Amino acid sequence: MFRNVLVILISIIISIGGNSQLLVPKKCYLHLVGKINREFPVEMNLVKINDTIYGDYYFSQPGNVPLGKGNSGKGIAFSGRMTSADAFSIKEYNTTGAGSFTGKFDNSQTLSGFYSATEGSKSLPFGVVEKYPEGSIGMDVCFQKGITPLVKKPKAPSATIQLVLLLPGESANPLISDSINRIILNTFTGKQVRTADPVKVLEGMKQVYSENYISSNEAIYSETRSSSFNWQSLKFMHVLLNDAHLLTFYIDHYAFTGGAHGLQTRQFSVVSLWTGREIGLKDVFRENSEIRLSELLTDKIHVMNHIPTSQSLKDAGFFTDTIKPGENFYLTREGVGFYYNQYDIAPYASGTIDLFIPFAELKELLVTGGPVRELLR
Q1: Is 11 helix (H, G, I), strand (E, B) or coil?
Q2: Quick one: pLDDT at residue 172?
Q3: Which domains does the chain have, with CATH numbers?
Q4: Is 297 or 16 the better-scoring residue by pLDDT?
Q5: Number of helices and strands (H, E) in the chain?
Q6: What's the predicted TM-score (pTM) here?
Q7: How many CA atoms lie within 13 Å of 154's alpha carbon, on the beta-carbon side?
Q8: Which residue among 9, 33, 172, 274 sits deepest, i.e. has the most Cβ atoms within 10 Å of its Cβ?
Q9: Do residues 218 and 189 make contact, with C-beta atoms less than 8 angstroms apart?
């Protein structure tokens, strides 16, 4: 599912010729606030690139959600496209009974239309407007793509790459913005960057990817002439939370370099918009909380997978009997999530594992004066 969504995104981005956008920029990030059916408050972090739209939304009042929609507190990812100069269609992914939004840009800052909580359910009117309350930031979109043929001949194998990066826009405090920029760039590239120029960073990533593709495959291809030398790299940045002086973002990365399947990863980061510093578990949880956190996470694995408490997780196919909290975690308005990529705690076939704990279950473990203090109000 994850790979299919990214493939859809790449195919939409490549085919940008048809729909000229009159109301909104070709590239933009929007933090949107509004209501569904005038009764269900909703917030949305939306990214638009040419005719492609993707992002995440969540219901901002716990327990107040449309019929048929559970509010897990995690946020719900979506993707779709512009269907005309101002109209769009987007759908949830990685969810059961995926909901959808259809509508239009009334102007560059306002969207309206209809929402279905689940596939085939009754459509409800919705309206959202771009808004950045205190404790949130605007962001700019940087986009790079490339196709590298392996050899100069028709229908030769090729490597494709798509990169979407979001960085803070203008700020009253350049030092904090610069710090956040560095954190995002280092996370996105997987190394310490030497320049803060996002264009140069993305161009450098594309060049290195192209050179690696040629050097890894050219000689072998010349001998075999096989057509199975296509590579693909898709890396998209999402914003999950942009509020309460906190920024939770994640990087979705799908890479295929041959073989039976590609490798998909999701990496989360949380940044304080007060200090421009990355937030770790020690900033969120009190000392000596790991044992209790492990118990909560292990219990959730048992419940999610319908594993009797009398059965060990190893017997059920996991790599360990105790699920420990890792640094690949995220914050939302309702709690803390821990994300485990394939092979982290279970075999590839088990897929990715997302464990979410509401704040109500963590009261005795949180540093209440720390970065989550505004979320706990």
Answers
A1: helix
A2: 67
A3: 2-130 (2.40.128.120), 139-272 (3.30.565.40), 281-361 (3.90.640.20)
A4: 297
A5: 5, 16
A6: 0.90
A7: 0
A8: 9
A9: no
